Amino acid sequence: MIAKRDEEGESLQFPKGFLWGAATSSHQVEGDNFHNDWWQAEQEGKVPFKSGKACNHYELFEEDFALAEKMNHNAHRFSIEWSRIEPEEGTWNMREVHHYRRVLQRLKDKGFKTFVTLHHFTNPLWFVSRGGWENKQAIFYFSRFARFIYEQLGELIDFCITINEPLPYIAMGYREGLWPPFRRSDYISAFKVFNNMVLAHNQASKSIKLFNPKAKIGIAANLIDFQPRHRWNPIDRLISFLTDYFWNRLFLDRITKNTDFIGVNYYFHHHVHTAPFIFGKSHSGHEFSDMGWGIHPEGLYFVLKKACHYGKPLFVTENGIADAKDEKRVNFILGHLRYVYQAIQEGVDVRGYFYWSLMDNFEWADGFWPRFGLLEVDYKTMKRIFRPSSKVFSEICKRNGIPPTLMKI
Ligand code: FCB
Predict the structure, then answer these.
(1) Ligand 1: which atom is nearest the Cα of residue 320?
(2) Which of 139, 215, 216, 364 could cross-link to 200 by cystine, CB 3.0-4.6 Å?
(3) How confident is the model at residue 2 (pLDDT cuts 50, 70, 90)?
(4) In the structure, what pLDDT confidence band is assigned to residue 279 with cuts at 50, 70 and 90?
(5) Ligand 1 within 6 A of 263 CB?
(6) Sign of torsion over alpha carbons 397, 400, 401, 404
(7) In this predicted structure, what is the pLDDT of residue 7?
(8) Under CATH, what is the fold of the domain 4-407?
(9) Domain segments of the chain: what residues?
(10) Which residue, among 400, 301, 296, has the nearest Cα to 343 in the 3D structure?
(11) How far apart are CA 11 and CA 228, in angstroms?
(12) What is the mean pLDDT of the chain?
């Protein structure tokens, strides 16, 4: 047994007020995001698939939130598409501001806590034409946008995530060259982007706080559980330590002063050794998702235990599996939640869990085939269908924990 039962020995009860929900991002679900760099790359054939209408969540958000409510969620994480709000430099599209007001209001009416991400991989085209994140001006542009969002919509935002996963953004765009701006092994630019993102987070946080000192500002960090492949091998251990430092800690170390909470996105566990390490797959015979990502719930426990050293409240802002047949999702969720529970039992201040994702969506360069959703999407009709696993997660949300009936699974 990995986590203790509660007093009655029946269930794993999570702390009162724990937040349960799902996460999405604008470009992956909304559709028709004409003014960002991903859309452009799709039209130019630089990525293999086009997002098109995606899930048409832009028009169907009310129906989607009604389904989230049916699934007993009490919080929701989504992103505001910068390129919609500011399609040209310094020009604010108030019709889009109004759209997101309706989105947020709908969530608030349902009593949901709102988690708003301001940057989830996509950039406005005008921003890219000025050098994107490599340009120091990015710090000013981004914090001006952040401040504007707070001025317009701040009273409806409970938690604000400035930037989603800076490290994967940089790795995919500047090392692998598979995402915009498609640079391969461009480490100088990668370094500049890293630095500017750190400063942009800090500056955005300060600008927002000047406007509303009570605003809760955080980040969503993709934390990987790095373990040395051979514990006895000092080189494996050293590389594992260094990888952990560069991937998991360096960014957080530089933003903690301007951060109220840390969002943890957990997907990967890697056994590190002297061969190329960052994107190597796990080598310990774990089960895999449809995308070939190893399933290793215990890693979530380790990354939470480490992130806890920053002394900030933690939220699992993403954790999910591509599993079209819905055969592994129940165990995936239960497995990870057991470890979240264990971490909480040991004093780690975890306050919420967001499954990725509310529905199937556009998985970046992989297109629509990976199926992450609690809701299955029929892309022809845009119909949403509850996956069997969504019922299990609903029950967990309703009971604020893992009830006795699910303990044996
Ligand atoms: C995360 C991203 C998210 C989604 C999941 C599967 O790294 O933040 O947009 O693609 O992976």
Answers:
(1) 6
(2) 139
(3) very low
(4) very low
(5) no
(6) negative
(7) 60
(8) TIM Barrel (3.20.20)
(9) 4-407
(10) 301
(11) 34
(12) 95
Cα–Cα distance, 98 to 153 (Å, whole number): 9
Q: Is the C-beta atom of 356 inside 6 A of ligand 1?
A: yes
> So what's the pLDDT on residue 1?
36
Task: Note if 363 is an active site residue.
Answer: no
Local structure of 54: helix, strand or coil? coil
Pick the closest to residue 145 from 85, 187, 197 (CA basis): 85
Two tokens, residue 215: 């605003």
| Residue with CA at minimum distance from ligand 1 atom 10 | 363
Count Cβ atoms within 10 A of the Cβ of residue 59 and give its class: 0-12 exposed, 13-18 middle, 19 or more buried.
Answer: middle
CB proximity list for 139: less than 8 A, separation 6 or greater = 196, 199, 200, 203
Position 229 confidence tier, pLDDT thresholds 50, 70, 90 = confident
Model pTM score? 0.96
- Residue 236, pLDDT score: 87
Distance CA 329, CA 323 (A): 7
Quote the tokens at residue 263: 């969002």
Ligand 1 center to 8 CA (angstroms): 38
360 vs 36, 169, 321, 375, CA distance in Å?
21, 21, 11, 7
- The model's pLDDT over 292-344, given as tens digits with 9 standing for 90+, comes to 999 999 999 999 999 999 999 999 999 999 999 999 999 999 999 999 999 99
Out of 62, 298, 318, 363, pick the active-site residue. 318
Helix (H, G, I), strand (E, B) or coil at 14: coil
DSSP codes joined into one string, 331-362? HHHHHHHHHHHHHHHTT--EEEEEEE-SB---
Q: Which pLDDT score is estimated for 309?
A: 98
Do 129 and 85 contact (CB within 8 A), yes or no?
A: no
The string of DSSP letters for 80-113 reads --HHHH-SBTTB--HHHHHHHHHHHHHHHHTT-E
- Neighbouring CB atoms inside 10 A of 49's CB total 14
CA distance 397 to 374: 13
Report DSSP letters for 208-271, one per residue.
HHHH-TT--EEEEEE--EEEESSTT-HHHHHHHHHHHIIIIIHHHHHHGGG-SEEEEE---EEE
Model pLDDT, residue 282: 54
69: annotated active-site residue: no
